[in-house]
Design a protein that fits this description.
Helix content: 25-40%
Largest sheet: 11 strands, mixed
Bound molecules: threonylcarbamoyladenylate, magnesium ion
């Protein structure tokens, strides 16, 4: 299959191109598209055959449910059993935006889309290209992140091309994404809504709208033995080819520890990559040293993390050390993804 790549600028969206992309979805094909979090791999959420194709293109186990993307609030009701009052409040506060909510599904949503579950994950993204595309596609677009299973989620169309060339009909290039980490997922089917995956919308932000919000305990710790509530969180996503260890401690000690490891690892033939930050990166002596951004504004780190992990793969780095990040605000999402990438290898010094 030839994958067509088209450019759509969010400031001057060409309706003709959006229609073309939408008609591919309506005909049962797949189109990757930009959202504010990461690129999505879209198919018709109400067509079981489309969902099967998504799993095949990603190389993803089909028990891992997909998120259904909508473009307007009226489209929520037909695909869910009920909209709890708590969900209505969160939708008013955070939709469109990087929040996914889980509901009891209605009969219109096929089990192929929900990985066999009776619940469905729904999100209304804020990216103008995503919204216009979903409308043209018929209103319901199932989309996981547009990476091959096991690779970091794509934050630009170039990474989607790397992973999906020849596997899908079309890629909409809408430039680099804004946030860089996947949406916050909240389960609305339980008494106290529960965060299953941390993201840009934090617990503190949610608790400004609802009295209290819980957290899946497996989110930040080693999950061996305990199944996370979002099936996808059990897989070792985002795993770079190199062996990644997070070094947590006071900045000076971390720099010294990492630099001390480098010479003997190089002698053994390893290529050493280091993830630092703007303030520290010049002081590292690895083979490839990359700054993830500025600690004073951790959104910069969220935006660069997946790009860096992909670049380390391209540069065939075999050992990676990373600084550790705060777990407040977006930092919790950063550490959640980094811990997964590291298979929970973290050294406290
Ligand atoms: O930001 C995002 O959410 C991106 C963009 C494209 O919207 N999408 C995304 O999709 O990250 P994906 O498929 O890579 O991750 C979806 C996660 C998986 O961990 C999956 O197990 C969980 O959502 N999930 C989906 N439906 C669920 C359900 N009914 N119950 C529990 N977890 C669910
Ligand atoms: Mg994903």
């Amino acid at each position: 299959m030839e994958t067509q790549v088209i450019q759509i600028d969010e400031k001057h969206m060409e309706q003709r191109l959006l229609k073309q992309a939408g008609s591919i979805i309506k005909a049962g094909g797949l189109v990757a598209f930009p959202t504010e979090t990461v690129y999505g791999l879209g198919g018709d959420a109400l067509n079981p055959e489309s969902s099967r194709k998504i799993y095949a293109a990603k190389g993803r186990p089909s028990d891992n449910p997909l998120i259904v993307h909508i473009a307007k609030l009226e489209d929520l009701q037909p695909i869910v059993k009920e909209i709890p009052e708590t969900a209505q409040k969160l939708a008013d506060a955070f939709w469109p935006g990087p929040l996914t909510m889980i509901f009891e599904k209605s009969d219109r949503v096929p089990y192929e889309t929900t990985g066999g579950l009776n619940t469905v994950a729904v999100r209304m993204p804020v990216h103008p290209v995503a919204l216009a595309f979903i409308e043209e596609a018929g209103g319901y677009v199932a989309a996981p992140s547009a990476n091959r299973s096991g690779r970091p989620s794509p934050t630009s169309a170039k990474y989607v091309e790397e992973d999906m060339q020849g596997r899908i009909e079309m890629i909409i290039d809408g430039g680099d994404v804004e946030i860089g980490l996947e949406s916050t997922i909240v389960d609305m089917t339980v008494e106290e809504p529960m965060i299953l995956r941390p993201g840009y919308i934090t617990k503190e932000m949610l608790e400004k709208v609802l009295k209290s919000v819980g957290e899946d305990k497996t989110m930040m710790s080693d999950t061996s033995g305990q199944a996370p509530k979002a099936p996808g969180m059990k897989y070792r996503h985002y795993a770079p080819k190199g062996d990644l260890t997070i070094i947590d401690g006071e900045a000076e000690k971390v720099i010294e520890y990492i630099n001390n490891q480098v010479p003997s690892l190089q002698k053994q033939g390893y290529k050493v990559g280091i993830i630092g930050t703007d303030a520290t990166i010049a002081r590292y002596r690895g083979d490839v040293c990359k700054s993830a951004g500025n600690r004073m504004d951790e959104t910069t780190i969220a935006k660069e993390l997946y790009r860096i992990l992909r670049e380390f793969d391209d540069e065939e780095v075999t050992i990676i050390f990373s600084e550790s990040f705060d777990t407040a605000g977006i930092g919790q999402a950063i550490m959640n993804r980094l811990l997964k990438a590291a298979g929970h290898k973290i050294l406290h010094i």
